[in-house]
Amino acid sequence: QVQLVESGGGLVQAGGSLRLSCSASGGTFSSYAMGWFRQAPGKEREFLTAITRSGGITYYADSVKGRFTISRDNAKKMVYLQMNSLKPEDTAVYYCAATNYRYEFNIPAPNEFHYWGQGTQVTVSS
Predict the structure, then answer these.
(1) Which of 22, 32, 49, 119 can pair with 96 through a Cys bridge, CB separation 3.0 to 4.6 Å?
(2) Rounded CA gap, 62 and 11, in Å?
(3) How many CB atoms within 10 Å of residue 109?
């Protein structure tokens, strides 16, 4: 099974940018659809974005559409989340997630992600 480790979180001012990285090990990375979630204090975990196994199809929640971009490099076993125009309400712990998904042209539902990283903190100051 796959193990995931996020990096790249930190403190940024509103309007700034960050790029999160997620490194995968174990398993066959190209067989996993990947996603990013976040959880702010006192709130439920939010499904932000996902990408299919080959990277051909992506999904974005309305809250991040147009500001965040997911990408993957199967050769490096990496998935990235480029976050631009950050807002204070983007402050949260960000989690990388994976699912061994047999459908190439479908985005998994949030509850279909079974493997999780430990999370990385993103704090956006106003």
Answers:
(1) 22
(2) 23
(3) 10
- The CA distance from 13 to 32, in Å, is 33
User: Would you say 116 and 35 are in contact if contact means Cβ atoms under 8 Å apart?
Assistant: no
Average predicted confidence (pLDDT) for the chain: 96
> CA separation (Å) from 35 to 11, 12, 79, 126?
22, 22, 9, 27
Residues 116 and 95: beta-carbon distance below 8 Å: yes
- Sign, Cα dihedral of 92, 96, 102, 103: positive
Q: What is the pLDDT of residues 28-75, one digit of tens each?
A: 999 999 999 999 999 999 999 999 999 999 999 999 999 999 999 999
